[in-house]
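#lab-general

N.A. 3:47 PM
ok so I finally got the sequence cleaned up, no stray characters, all 239 residues accounted for. can someone with queue access submit it? mine expired

B.Y. 3:52 PM
send it over

N.A. 3:53 PM
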Amino acid sequence: MIHSKRNHNMCLTARGESLGNRTLIEFARCRKDTGFNTFFWDEGKTDQLQIQEELGFCVTNEGAKPRKRDKIVAKECEDRKDMRWTLTPPPPEEEEEEEYVFKIRGDGFKGFDGCIEPQGNEVKTGNGLILGNCTNDDNSWTEEDIGYSTVMFHTRRDPDMCLHAGMRGQPKDGRHMRTIPCDKHNRLQHFEWDGDDIKIKCCDFCVVQQSPKAEIGDTIILKNCTSRDGEGWSYDGID
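B.Y. 4:20 PM
back already:
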């Protein structure tokens, strides 16, 4: 029996109760009580696909020569010795690489750990980002490399939401970092990160905490990379 990959309960079947030239071949619900959906493949000899109910009939195309959109029908095997079939297995499914999930942890804060996290532990359009206490694994990120040394940061809570500089307009000193729906064409979501500074790709602004002293709850903003007070950021992978 030849099952459909889309629906394993459907099998290649000769329509009707008797076979003849041009009997239509179609997919129908699989049945074990009939030879109309059982086939014999004469591999290596004629390579014809014969219908088990009547081995004198083979599966072929309707026209004299194969054409796109030809109906598949039964015809006497002797008349269609040129119609051969091969079985091609589908390519093996590629295993998806497990995404590396990490916290964006500040380096060098004195006396505490601080990570970039969504305000109120909530990811939504326009929500601000703060310096959190790194205790909630859901406030983690994944990184997407989009080429040309450019990355985007996706939130773990909602992979369709990304780190975004402000809401609109040009990046500038003090602009708040937010979560916005991901858009590969939006340059306000394009960053460079060498495992230290997180820098917006288009210009010389870095992602930092707002307060020079760094406190839990600080707003995460952009600041000129040459005058920033914040420390760098590092990957902190989670299981």
